[in-house]
Write a structure and sequence with these properties.
The structure holds 2 protein chains of 2 kinds. Chain A is mainly α. Helix content of chain A is 69%, strand content 0%. Chain A has helices at 11-19, 24-40, 43-50, 52-64, 82-112, 115-120, 126-155, 164-189, 195-201, 204-212, 224-231, 234-246, 262-283. In chain A, helix 5 (82-112) packs parallel to helix 8 (164-189), helix 5 (82-112) packs antiparallel against helix 9 (195-201) and helix 8 packs antiparallel against helix 12. Chain B is of the alpha/beta class. Chain B has 9 helices and 12 strands. The chains are: A mainly alpha, B alpha/beta. At the A-B interface, helix 1, helix 2 and helix 6 of A face helix 2 and helix 3 of B.
């Protein structure tokens, strides 16, 4: 009688194939390249995610002029040009665009257009899929921020921070905030009931939060109750953290409490990151149905 | 007369899963919804032998897709035993999915990719993929390799789906309504492809609404309605002799007549008075698969209506 380990002529290849495992990391890298290729062929994503902060900064500089006009008119030496003032906010905006808007839009799409269903029917590990998403998001936030910094420096003449400390703060804020928004973005993508609604829905939170978090308007000029709402979200803390990196020290006085409060910024971002990961772990399905 | 033939798997002998890649016993799938529970699959048992092309037929909402998705590992059964290639699909490791191929019912993914890019991308996930160029030729997409998938016609898009399902060189292939949207020519070509896969020993499970397709391709047919397998058999014997009796029809001054008889020649002889008289529009017809299918659905529609 035959036993599972010693069967027909195909037994050897069959038992070998049963031992076969996909290489999660190598496939994650392949997914990153593929995701980047698909992204680069999506003109609306290029405009509304990759170049959007740079475009916005260009607009602010054009509309408000190149004069040092922002700040306390009684202390002309502290006044900033629009490009200088808006750079931190635009970098913070990039984290929610690349992390949240782009990722949740794509994942929601892929839940409904058959992508995830197809991939879940192949040996591709779900972790490789997520590594691909992580790779794409890292590539996006890096490119987006690099474009913004280069544009700020060479088109608008913004002075860059000179201390290692400032750049370290910049890096953990950038990566932490993008990671938190990414985790929340994937969970958000799983809420959608239809593919159509999802892409549109994922553009709403960045739009609203950008208005109340000190990205488009000075945070100090917001009414208290709006500031309280913004305090619960990472964007407000990323924006103020980025201001601590790029604005002169004296500008801390304009922040609530008169300090940059980086400790609280780190805490809020960390809480969102953990909550987002837990939520994504609970609601994301691979394959998409039970 | 039996109207359905069940072939429960011989479970007590030493048959390994190499001979019976699919064994399903008392499979039930219940969906919970706000309005209550819906049982999509109801105590279904089924076994499919290696190398066989098996077609699942049934009306929309009968449970065909749910059954296939459970076999693929995309859905978890509520109860019952499901064994595919020796494992339980929904919790099987990646090596299980390396041995199956899935052609999805409707997908619009990967539109930004070119045909060859999409196939290469998916091929990389398998240990022993088919050659991409050979596959493109097999599904008749030569000349379209460099075209973005979003710019293809509906029928061409379906061919890409078929190619994507085959790229891993599967020993077990699932096709959910594979030829929907094909023109007759493309359908013929697709049938040829399926026959060549069958000749290579691939076990094939497909759902279709086209009975001619089922008749052309399948070694065995299973008819699902209301989540139950109500009939099973080869295309030539499905439904049993009772549903296959010839039908003689003709017209006379009283109108149209149809009679079902086991002795059509005798009836024609009688009608024509020994061949001296020609009845108008005389026809002897053996029921088509479609006639038998519709008759089976009618019988079981009434039965399940009584049961619930």
């Amino acid at each position: 009688m035959t036993t599972p380990s010693a069967t027909a002529p195909t037994g050897l290849s069959t038992s070998l194939s049963r031992l076969w495992r996909p290489n999660t990391l190598a496939l994650g890298w392949r997914r990153t390249i593929l995701e980047a290729r698909m992204f680069s062929r999506d003109p609306s994503a290029l405009v509304f995610t990759l170049f959007f902060p740079l475009i916005m900064m260009g607009l602010f500089s054009t509309v408000f002029g190149d004069e040092a006009s922002i700040g306390d008119p009684n202390r002309p030496e502290s006044l900033l040009r629009p490009a200088e003032y808006y750079l931190p906010g635009m970098i913070a905006l990039g984290t929610i665009l690349s992390g949240f808007q782009n990722l949740s839009g794509y994942v929601a799409d892929e839940r409904f257009n058959g992508s995830i269903k197809r991939l879940a029917g192949t040996p591709l590990p779900s972790l490789s899929y997520f590594l691909g998403k992580t790779g794409l998001t890292l590539l996006l936030i890096t490119t987006q921020t690099a474009l913004l910094l280069l544009g700020a420096r060479f088109l608008f003449g913004v002075t860059m921070p000179a201390t290692v400390d400032a750049w370290l703060t910049f890096i953990w804020l950038l990566l932490g905030s993008t990671a938190a928004w990414s985790a929340v973005g994937i969970a958000f993508a799983c809420l959608a009931r239809t593919g159509q609604g999802a892409s549109t829905m994922s553009a709403v939170p960045p739009l609203l939060l950008a208005f109340i978090s000190g990205v488009y308007f000075p945070f100090s000029q917001m009414p208290d109750w709006l500031r309280t709402i913004a305090d619960f979200f990472p964007l407000r803390w990323t924006a103020s953290g980025m201001r601590s990196v790029f604005l002169p020290e004296g500008w801390a006085a304009v922040e609530p409490g008169g300090t940059w409060n980086l400790g609280l910024a780190a805490l809020v971002i960390a809480v969102w990151l953990v909550a987002g990961l837990v939520l994504t772990r609970t609601v994301f399905r691979w394959p998409p149905q039970k | 007369m039996e109207t359905s033939t069940f072939h429960p798997a011989p479970r007590n002998d030493a048959t390994s899963h190499h001979d019976v890649p699919i064994e399903v016993e008392n499979l039930t799938k219940v969906y919970r919804q706000k309005s209550g529970t819906i049982s999509a699959v109801n105590n279904l048992s089924l076994s499919i032998q290696a190398g066989v092309t098996y077609a699942l037929l049934g009306p929309n909402g009968a449970g065909k897709s749910t059954t296939i998705e459970i076999l693929e590992g995309h859905r978890k059964p509520t109860s019952g035993r499901v064994n595919v290639l020796g494992t339980t699909p929904y919790k099987a490791p990646p090596s299980f999915r390396a041995r199956i191929g899935i052609v999805l019912q409707e997908a619009t993914d990967a539109g930004a990719l070119r045909v060859r890019e999409a196939l290469h991308a998916l091929a990389a996930y398998y240990p022993n993929p088919r050659g991409v160029d050979e596959l493109i030729a097999a599904v008749g997409l030569e000349g379209k390799e460099s075209q973005r998938i979003s710019t293809l016609s509906g029928g061409q898009r379906r061919r890409v789906d078929v190619a994507l399902g085959l790229v891993g060189n599967p020993e077990l292939l699932f096709l959910d309504e594979p030829t929907t949207g094909f023109d007759p020519d493309a359908r013929r070509a697709f049938w040829g492809l399926i026959r060549s896969l069958r000749a290579d020993g691939t076990t094939i499970v497909l759902t279709t609404h086209y009975l001619d397709e089922a008749e052309q391709l399948a070694d065995r047919l299973g008819i699902i309605t209301g989540g139950r397998l109500v009939a099973e058999g080869a295309p030539g014997t499905l439904g049993g002799a009772a549903l296959r009796r010839p039908r003689v029809s003709w017209i006379d001054d009283d109108g149209v007549h149809e009679e079902i008889t086991d002795r059509p020649a005798e009836l024609v002889n009688l009608l024509s008075a020994g061949g001296t008289h020609e009845p108008r529009k005389l026809q002897i017809r053996v029921p088509s698969l479609e006639d038998i299918y519709l008759e089976l659905l009618k019988q079981h529609g009434i039965q399940s209506g009584d049961a619930s």
